[in-house]
Amino acid sequence: MKRFALLAGSAAVVVAIAQVPVAHAQEVDSTPPQSEAHASVDEIVVTATRRATNLQSTPVAVSAIGENVIAQTAARNIGDLAAFVPNFSAAKIAGFNAASFSIRGASQTNISMYSEPPITVLVDDFVIAHVQTQLLDTFDLAGMEVLRGPQGTLFGKNTTGGAIVVRTKRPELDILGVQGMVRVGSFGTRQIKGAVNIPIVEDMLALRVVGSYEKSDGYMRRGGCYGPITPLVADSKWAGAAGCGDGKRVGGDDIFDGRVKLLWKPGDRTEVLFQYQALRDRSDAAAGVNGTPANNPRFLLSRLNIVEGTGDPLKNAGGSFRSGYLLDQDDGTSVNVDMYQIHVDQEVDFGQFSANIGRRDELAHLPQSYVFSNVPTIDGETLSLYDGDRAFKRRTQQAELRFASDFGGPFDFVAGVFHQRDRVYRCGHQLLGFLDLSSRPGPFGPNNLNPQLLCNAQKARSTAGYVEGNYKLTDRLTLTAGVRYTTETKRWWGRPTVYVQQLVSPADPNFTWQDLDRALDGNVFDYPAGVVSSKTTWREPTWRGTASYQATDDIFAYFTYSRGFKSGLYADSTGISGAAIVPSQLIPTNPEKADSFELGVKTELLDKRLRFNLAAFHVTYNDAQRQVNVPVVRVDGSQIQETRYFNAAKAVVKGLEAEITAVPVEGITLRSAIGYQDAKYKSFVSPLPTGRNLAEAPLERTPRWQASLDGTYETEIGNWGKVSVNGNVQYAGRNLYNLSLTSALDDAYLPARTLFNASITFSDPEDKYYIRLIGQNLSDKRYLVGHLVAGGLFVTKNYGPPRFLAAEIGFKM
C-alpha cells in the first residue's frame, strides 16, 4: 500500500506541476519577441529503446549528456558527469583508480574480479565487464546516456541498477576533418588529444583515428609522519622507527588511449564498422591516506602506533613504493587493453538487422599499499605493512544479433540474442609486514621478505534471448512489453593463500619469488597443488511492461514495471586464510533480483523554453548480494581481512528524480538535476556472527539527496568571435561507503560535499579555434571518494582532487 501511495501522490504532484505551466502558456502571447525567436531547448535523440527516439517521448528514465556539456564542463572521465544525472553518483574503489558507480541504491565498492557491477557500462554496445577500466576518457564521445533502474530486456546483463551507454564518434564518409586540443594545468597536468577523419572512397569508405595522452604528477604528496613504532613482539628491529615522508608528489597519471574506426558502406542500406581500441595505463600506484585513529585499541595499526597524520590529508599520502618481491610498486600501474569490434547494420523494407561482434583483452598489474602510511627503511630493507598487487588477465568475447522492426503500423518490436564468454586468470599477492610486528615470522622467514599468493580463475558464459514489442492502442496510448531469458554458467578454480615456496609440492624453501617473472606465473593451472573447482548454472527470466500516454504535444507520461537481475558470484578472496578450501566455501551466491515500479512525466513548456522531467520510483532488491569485510584467523594464529559475499538482504529504495533544462532568453541555458532516495533494509541477516542489527544500517553509496545546477551564457563579441561562460555547483549528501559487520563505530562514510566548477571559452565566429580556462573544485574542498575500514586492522582513505586550474586550446577544421 505504501508503494502505491507514493506513486499516486507523485502522480498528483506531477499532474499539478504539468497543468500550471500549460495554463500560463495559454495566457501569454505565443509569439516571442524577434530577438528571442530561437530561444528553446534542443531536441535530444536517445537510443534507450535500441531505436533512435526523442527523449521526451521515450518511456524510460534516461539522462542524455551531449558533446557540448562534456566540453563546457571539461570532464576528465565519465565519472565527472555523474552530477548531471539524478540519483547517480561516482566515486573510486578504495585504494584503486577504479569506478564505484551508484544508481538507486545499487552500487559496487570493491574491485573483486568476479563481482560484475550492477550498473553496466557499454561502449559502442560492448559490455565492460570490470570496474577497473570503466572511468572512460570523454574525448571524441558522441554522447552518453544513463538509464536508471533495472533494464530487464534490451540491456539485460546484470543491470539491477542501470546502464551507462557510451557512444564514440563514427567516421564521416564525406568530410576531411581534423580536431585537437592541448591542456596544461595544476599538478603538472599535460594532455594532448586529437582526431582525424579521412574519406577514402567517396560515399563508401572512411577512416577515423583518435588518440589521447595524459600525464600528471599527482595531486597528493608523500608526507605525514609515522611512529615511533611499537611492535607487539620482542626484539623487532623496527621498534622505535620513526620519520616523515619526503614530500614528493604521488598518484600521477600516465595514460594513452587510441582508437581506429573504419566505416564501409557498400550500399545505401548497408553499413559495416570495424573498430580497434588500445589503452595503455602506466600511472603511479594509487595514492591514499592512512586513516587509522590514534589510541584506538580496536585497530592493530593503532596499537603499533602507525596512525593517521595531522594537517592537510593531501600532504599525508603514504606507501612503501617498494621494488621487487613481485610488487614493483615503484614502477606503478600497468594496464593494457586491446579491443576489437565489427558492427554491421542492414536495413530491409520492414526494419533493420544489427550485429555486433567483439573481443576485449585486458592485462593488468595493480600494485598498492593497502596501508597508506609512510614506512621506514632499515639496512636497505623497506617495511611493507600490507603491500599487495592484483594481477589479472581477462578476455571477454561478445556477440549480439538484433532486429528492430519498422512495419509502418501500430505494432513494432525489437528482438535479439546475446552471447558473452569471459575468462579471467587472477593472482593477488601480498607482503604482510604487519605480521612481523604483531605475531611472528612465517615458516620461511620474515613475512616482510616473503610474498604470499592467492590465485584463482573463472570461465563464465552468458547467453540470452530477448524481445520487446510496442503496440499503439490509440494515437496517444502505447503499451510495451518485453521479456529476456538468460542462462549463465560459471566455473571457478581456486587455491588457498600460500607462500611462494608452497606453490610446489612438497614445499621447497629454495623456491622463492625470484623464480617467478610476475605474480600471474603462479596461477592455478601452472601450479595445481591444492586447487579446487566449482561450477554453477543459473537461469533467469526478466521482463518489462510499460504503458505510455502522450497527453498533449508537450506532455508525455509513462508507468513501468520491470525486473532485472545480477548474476551469482564466486569471491576472489576465498581461501585467504591459508587453510584448505572446504566445500561450503565453494558455494557461490545466488543471483540478486530487482523489481522496480516507476511513474514518469516528461514535459516541454513555455514554447519549448522549459523542459521538466520527473520520475518517481520504488525498487525492491531481493536476495541482495552484500559484501562483508570480516577478520579471519589464519592457520598460524595471525589475523587478516577477508571479503565475503552473501545473499543476505532485502532492501527497498524509493525516491524522486527531476531534470530541468531552461532557455529563458537566447544565449542562456540552465540545467538542474535533483535526486531524492529513501533507502532501507527490510532484512539483513549475515551467516557470520555479528555484534549489531545490520538491518538498521543504511545502504552503501546511497545519499538521500543529490543535486546540481549548471548555467551557460553565450554571446558574440562583435566580429571577433564568441565567449561562453559556464558554471556549476554539485551537491551529494552523506552516504555509507563501507559497512562493518560488528560495530556501527567502524562504518566508513563519505561526508556530504558541495563542489563549484567553472569555465570560460573564447572561440572564433566559425568555432574553428578556441581557448578555454577551467576551474574545478574552486573552493578547494577536501572530500573523500573512498573510505575503507579493514576490520580490526586499519582504516584507509582516498580523497578527490583539490582546486584544479587549467588552460586549454583546441581547433576543429
CATH homologous superfamily annotation: TonB-dependent receptor, beta-barrel domain
Distance between the termini: 59 Å
What is the CATH class designation?
Mainly Beta
The outline comes out as: globular
According to CATH, the fold-level topology is Maltoporin, Chain A
**Which percent bin holds the helix content?**
under 10%
Structural class: mainly beta
Low-confidence segments, given as residue ranges, are 1-37
Quickly count the domains: 1
Q: Tell me the CATH architecture.
A: Beta Barrel
Biggest sheet descriptor: 22 strands, antiparallel, barrel
Instruction: Indicate the proportion of strand residues.
Output: over 45%
Number of helices: 4
Rg measurement, Å = 27 Å
Q: How many individual β-strands?
A: 45
Mean pLDDT across all amino acids? 89
Short synopsis of the structure:
By secondary structure, the protein is mostly beta strands.
3D structure, described in words:
- This protein has a single domain, classed as Maltoporin, Chain A (Beta Barrel), CATH 2.40.170.
- With 813 residues, it is mostly beta strands.
- It starts with a helix and ends with a strand.
- It is globular, with a radius of gyration of 27 Å.
- The chain is built from 4 helices and 45 strands.
- Mean pLDDT is 89; it is low at 1-37.
Topology:
Layout: H1 2-27, E1 45-46, E2 53-54, E3 62-65, H2 67-72, E4 88-92, E5 99-103, E6 106-107, E7 119-123, E8 126-128, E9 141-148, E10 162-168, E11 177-185, E12 189-201, E13 205-215, E14 220-221, E15 225-226, E16 243-244, E17 249-250, E18 254-267, E19 270-281, E20 288-290, H3 300-303, E21 317-318, E22 334-348, E23 351-369, E24 377-378, E25 381-382, E26 387-405, E27 411-431, H4 433-438, E28 452-472, E29 477-494, E30 498-499, E31 532-550, E32 555-566, E33 592-605, E34 610-633, E35 639-662, E36 668-684, E37 705-717, E38 721-732, E39 735-738, E40 748-750, E41 753-763, E42 769-776, E43 784-790, E44 794-799, E45 804-812
